[in-house]
Amino acid sequence: MYSGALMQLKIKQGNNWKVVGGMKTTKFEISGDLTEANVISGNDWRILAEGGFKKINIGLSGLFSNNEAEKIICKLAFSGRAEKYKLEFANNESLEGHFQIASYIRFGDVNKEEEYSISLASSSAIEYKTS
User: Fold this and answer.
1) 64, 118 in Cβ contact below 8 A?
2) What digits encode the pLDDT tens for the residues 9-62?
3) Contact of 83 with 98, CB cutoff 8 Å
4) What is the chain's percent helix, strand, coil content, to nearest 5?
5) What whole-number distance in Å separates Cα of residue 43 and Cα of residue 30?
6) Please, are residues 114 and 106 in contact by the beta-carbon 8 Å criterion?
7) How many CA atoms are closer than 13 Å to the CA of 47, on its beta-carbon side?
8) Which is nearest to 74 in space by CA: 101, 96, 108?
9) pTM of the full predicted structure?
10) Average pLDDT, whole number, for the chain?
């Protein structure tokens, strides 16, 4: 069992990866839309093997690592531009690829740290890496 506190979100800036922040909660969903095919002259239908497309949605919330990270994410949320992200897990596995910020929320309570919540939607093929 691994601690969620060890998960990190990073964004590619030039040749370097910058830590956006640590996460309190993280989830990701891989889904694929199937493609059906049929023939007009018959009643046969089938699902095409490897047809359709896959997508990954990542939802996370936590604390920004610094003000620069918050500014980068805020600008990307306003621009709608996709960037390269890496989500690293405590067991040295990671997801890497281009994502677009689908939603961005900043919130905070009095006398507590300001937090963020981000939803990322894949905009390219995503690479899953294992150690």
Assistant:
1) no
2) 899 989 999 888 777 887 878 877 666 666 565 556 555 556 666 788 889 888
3) yes
4) 10, 55, 30
5) 31
6) yes
7) 7
8) 101
9) 0.77
10) 82
Output the CA–CA distances (angstroms, integers) from residue 62 to 6, 29, 128, in the order listed. Answer: 12, 18, 22
> Distance (Å, rounded) from C-alpha 38 to C-alpha 18?
48
pLDDT at 48: 56
Quick one: tokens of 45? 């239908």
pLDDT given for residue 34 in this prediction: 65
Closest CA to 88 of 118, 117, 129: 129
The amino acid at residue 27 is: K
CATH number of 4-129: 2.30.110.20
73: which 2 tokens?
Answer: 């994410």
Q: Which residues on neighbouring strands pair with residue 127, listed in sequence order? A: 96
Residue 55 tokens, joined: 């997508």
Report residue 6: phi and psi, to 5°: -90, -5
The predicted structure's pLDDT at residue 91: 86
